[in-house]
Amino acid sequence: MAKSVPDHIIIGAGFTGLVHAFLSLEKGESVLVLEKRDRAGGLIRSVPTEYGIVETAANGILNCWELEALSSKLGLDLLFPDANAKKRYIFSDRKFKRLPLNVFEIIRFAFSALTVPSKPIPGESIYSWGKRVLGDAFLSKILEPALGGIYAGDLDAMSAEFVLGKFLREDVPLWKNFRAYANSRKEKPKLQPGRRGTVSFRGGIGSILGALEARVASQGKIKYKQEILSIKDLRKSYPKAKITLATNLSTTLKILKAEFKEFKGYQGMLDTLPVVSVTRFGKDSILSGKKGFGVLFPKDHKSFSSELGIRARGILFNDFIFSGRTSDGIHSETFIYGGAGDREIASRSEDEIISIVEEDRKKLFPEGEIPLNHYVTVWKDALPVYGPQLFAFNRDLDRVLPPDIRVEGNFRNGIGLKSILERAFEQNGL
């Protein structure tokens, strides 16, 4: 039974908050989670429909020993991807290509990876770093769609030091930095052969959120519809509890600047990006006989335009990734929009967004059939902009905050559930 006075208060019941709450309970601490909404989960939900599962955010998580340990403690079995999911495509020259570089571009990249110092220069953007280290072709054909798909950002506005710094610590060529990073992780537990890559759960990625919520609620306490405006107000009721903020970037800044003057200057400087996802169910596949994980669409780094005028950043082929994701004979494709250069789409109506999806699909697959259904999700503040301002904010978080106040989230250690999970285990001494 939870103590009436908790050892640890966590603000936010999304993936980050629930993981930290669970790990705190594992250490024998009493926990209270305060959530602004009337439900847990944050961005992540797995919605069952008559045609198949819809993932409102992440459709999987990169496997790691921390996920294996957490899933085991929660009694969850990991779902591994089908062999077809190994195929990832980039749209180039009106085709879905697994490697859009020609032989000369591959040679240029190999030469750079072997010779050019790869440690980011302070103040260097991802675009400038890519141009210097990888070459123009690799930058535009692979790095831009890859990072644009993950971070939804403008490579000119993204800090190379922030995004790549933990992988590229020495002023040596790329291959040496990657080798050094791999060596630094040798002491971590190894995954068994065949257990690497993107994984999920039978009921979708939301299954782990549901299991975490149930465990935290049974061993600790979760209060919903609790809006926290300042740490000072929280301290009046819980003067001795340690506090973890696990909210989105804008909410975190709002709470912190009410207590710490050092963070007031970041108001208006820390930007976030909208993301729109549309899961489309139909009887045909845009891959037309092929199979794979998904396809990314390179964007011009200034105009954000793409070949054929495709507005989507990428498409996930859900039924080819994990088995059991759709009803028999149904295909599921998730179109991803928004981010830098396309903020406007988040203000469109659901019908307008669906029309954009069908227009994009028609350009790629003119003979496509009529869809069965669409499921639209709009997140107006989904992702932070990983720029120099956010980099400075993170350094100030480490410098200013006392030991009993921590801030966690997708703006701290890198984007993605794996990064959040790895940092949570590290912060909790596991």
Brief synopsis:
It comes from Leptospira langatensis. The protein has 430 residues and is an alpha/beta fold. The chain has helices at 15-26, 65-74, 103-115, 126-133, 136-151, 160-164, 174-184, 206-219, 231-237, 249-257, 318-321, 350-364, 388-400, 417-427, and strands at 8-11, 31-34, 46-48, 53-55, 61-62, 78-79, 88-92, 95-97, 198-201, 221-223, 242-245, 272-282, 294-296, 314-317, 331-338, 373-384, 405-407.
Please, could you describe this protein's structure?
- The protein has 430 residues and is α/β, with parallel strands linked by helices.
- The protein contains 14 helices and 17 strands.
- It has a seven-stranded mixed sheet, sandwiched between helices.
- β1, α1 and β2 form a beta-alpha-beta unit.
- The radius of gyration is 22 Å and the shape is globular.
- The two termini are 24 Å apart.
- The mean pLDDT is 94.
Strand order of the biggest β-sheet: 8-7-13-14-15-12-16
The CATH homologous superfamily of the largest domain corresponds to FAD/NAD(P)-binding domain
Any idea how many domains?
A: 3
CATH topology of the largest domain: FAD/NAD(P)-binding domain
What number is the mean pLDDT?
A: 94
Overall form: globular
User: Distance between the terminal alpha carbons, to the nearest Å?
Assistant: 24 Å
Based on the structure, what is the oligomeric state of the protein chains?
single chain
Tell me the Rg in angstroms: 22 Å
| Percentage beta strand | 15-25%
- The amount of helix comes to 25-40%
Instruction: Indicate the CATH architecture of the largest domain.
Output: 3-Layer(bba) Sandwich
**What top-tier CATH class of the largest domain fits best?**
Alpha Beta
* Largest sheet geometry: 7 strands, mixed
Number of strands: 17
Low-confidence stretches: none
Number of helices: 14
